[in-house]
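Sequence dictates fold. Next comes a concrete instance:
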Amino acid sequence: MKRASDVPLKVAAIVTPDHAKTFAEEWRTGSWATGVICEAFSATRLMEWPSNAGAGGQETPEELRYKEVEDEILNRMLDVLQPVIEAAFLQSASEVLDRERTLSRKRNVQE
């Protein structure tokens, strides 16, 4: 049986800034969509969730204000992280896929 590391993969010829931008944007969108970013913020305990949350079956002004402040903090952080994530993705993906291309060329020579 072949080892997973012996199986060639089809990879892009080059990793582009567009690949990195797509990754960073999808990461950002997914972080909001899953709520994981809000859970991470909540875990910091920077702010206390309003004690009257859910009162009357509607969002209270305190809840709305909490969410406004939370969103501002998180959006500012994500704005700073966007170019860092893009650069890190571009570098990491380029290095790993360069290695994979090299391995693939070596396999083809051996066959």
